[in-house]
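Section 5.1 Outputs to date
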Amino acid sequence: MAITASMVKELREKTGAGMMDCKKALTKNDGDMEKSVEFLREKGLAAAAKKADRVAAEGLVKAYISDDAKKAAIVEVNSETDFVAKNEDFQNFVTDVAEQAINTNATDIDAFLEEKWLRDESKLVKDILVEKISVIGENLSIRRFEKFESDNGFIESYIHGEGRIGVIVELETETNSDAIKEAARNLAMQIAAIAPKYISKDEVSQDYIEKEREILKQQAVNENPDKPENIIDKMIIGRLQKQLKEVCLLDQQYVKDGDLTISKYLDQVSKEVGFKVNVKRFVRFETGEGIEKKEENFADEVAKQLGQ
């Protein structure tokens, strides 16, 4: 497969690795982007998923929570430019989409777009979207949503960076006292900042563990080519444990108190309020994650229009 400059550029943006390293990785893996990212990670030339998930689109993430904190929704709506993301009309539209999502029966975006718009049931969600595109003058996209309903707890949200990152988190508790609300907000901020993938190690699939183990092992082999395999296997045990702590919320270091893990922090909260407090689930959206943004060179664009 021919390796193009755009492929090299994409891999470089995902990993931060050098141009020649990216070209070598793509060539070795016949242009497969995912395998090339793994190859660079194994060589120690990429910073794992932190760079692979770089934000590349504009828009907003917003959450909507019911008055009793028993229902919540979070949505991501994309725009072409950051300028539009700061537009009041666009921001109000995203808020309306979040309110639509908290009341939706849809389980995917296609069904969501076909629903009646709650603020004007003579129109569908997709019709309102088209109207907004016409008024605002940019292509807009309702990309995704998630909805929670809590039976034995409550839901809290946190929005960071004026809508760049959003989180909803559900706690299993006997009450939503002020102390519990504060804890939930702290957890939502933790999730926004550190981006865990799981609540605990119990949720981590064996496939994920084995894949990470192989990548870490290859890294160790490349760094220590003279060490025997049994020593390499011992070396990666600690690395794998560290990796799992980074992706599991309860094992993460609490950002507000480095002496605590999130698990120990929740133990403290539980002791304070007199009953057990558990994290049931969470969702974290970051605007544009996984979307490749088309970069425009303004000077080139002007030159083209002038026929130069």
